[in-house]
Amino acid sequence: MLRTIPNFRDVADVVPGLRRGRLFRSDFVLDPHEDDAKLVIACGLRWVVDLRSPSERQDNPNRFFERTGTPLVHMDVASRGDPEVLARALRSGDGAAGAHALMLEVYEQFPAGALAVVDALSGLIAQGDLPIMIHCAAGKDRTGFVVAALLRAIGIEHELVEADYLASLGRVHERTFAHSREIMSEMLDTPIDEAALAGISGVHSDFLCAAIRSAERRYGSFQAYLQTAGIDRERAQAMRMNLLEG
Fold it and tell me: What is the pLDDT of residues 31-85, one digit of tens each?
C-alpha cells in the first residue's frame, strides 16, 4: 500500500489471470510522496481516467498527471441520486445502519450513471490503449463499480470481482474521511457520528451487489447491461486478448 495513495494498485494484484501492468485503479492522486510518485510514473500509464464530477475536478484539479504529461480523460459517473432520498436513507437507522442504507441507495444509481463510462473505457481497452488507470475520489465506489463491470465483461467470476472490490477496505486517505464528514454533516444538518462515517468511507459486498441487482432489474441481466454499454462479443474478445494472460 502506498503511503500517500493508499488505494492505488494493479488490479492483477487481486485477480489472477490478468496481465500485470495493464489495468490500475486508484484514489485521487493529489500530492504524492516522492517515492509514491516514482512508482506511479514507472507504471507507464497511457491514460488516466478521472470519474469525478466537474465540480470535484475544479476543487482539486489533476495537476500531478498534468505535470507528468500523462493524458487525462474525464468520464463523469453521473450518479448523484435524489438528495432527499439519500438523506432519508441516512436517517433511517442509527450510525452504521443509516450509513449502510445510504450507500445502498448510492450504488443503485451507478449502473445508469456509469453506462457511457463503461462503453468508452471498454473501447479503449479493446483497442489496446493500455496501461490505463481509473480513479475517482476515494477509488472505491465509482471506480469499484466500473472496474467490476469491466472484469465481468471479460468473464472474471463474481468471487474474484468482489475480492478486487473489497480490497479497497482500509485503504482510505484521511482526506476522504474529511470530505465524507463534511458532506454528510451538511446533509443531516448535524455532525455525523464516527460509526456512520466509517460505514460511508468503507466498502461492503452488499453495496456492489446492490449495483449489480439494479443493473439486472433495469436491463434484464448484467450481460444485457454490458451489451447496452457497447460490449458485444467482438469487443469483449478484444478486451480479453489485451487484459488476460495466455
Answer: 899 999 999 999 999 999 999 999 889 989 999 999 999 999 999 997 655 666 6
d(CA 241, CA 39): 26
DSSP 8-state secondary structure symbol assigned to residue 46: S
Spatial contact of 99 and 90, defined as CB atoms under 8 Å apart: yes
> In the chain, which ranges are E strands?
9-10, 23-26, 47-50, 72-74, 132-135
CA distance linking residue 11 with residue 186, whole number of Å: 34
Q: What are the grid coordinates assigned to 225, written together?
A: 447491461
Using alpha carbons only, give the angle 110, 62, 37 rounded to the nearest 5 degrees.
Answer: 110
- What is the edge-to-edge ordering of all strands in the sheet holding 9-10? 9-10, 23-26, 132-135, 47-50, 72-74
**What confidence tens digit (pLDDT) does each residue in 137-181 have?**
999 999 999 999 999 999 999 999 999 999 999 888 887 777 777
Q: Kindly list the structural domains of the chain, giving each domain's residue range(s) and its CATH number in brackets, ordered by start.
A: 9-243 (3.90.190.10)
- Would you list the DSSP string of 159-210? HHHHHHHHTTTT---HHHHHHHHHHHHHHHTSPPPHHHHHHHHS--HHHHHH
Give the other-Cβ count within 10 Å of 147's Cβ. 22
For 32-131, strand residue ranges (E) read: 47-50, 72-74
Task: Give the integer Cα–Cα distance in Å for 196 and 181.
Answer: 9
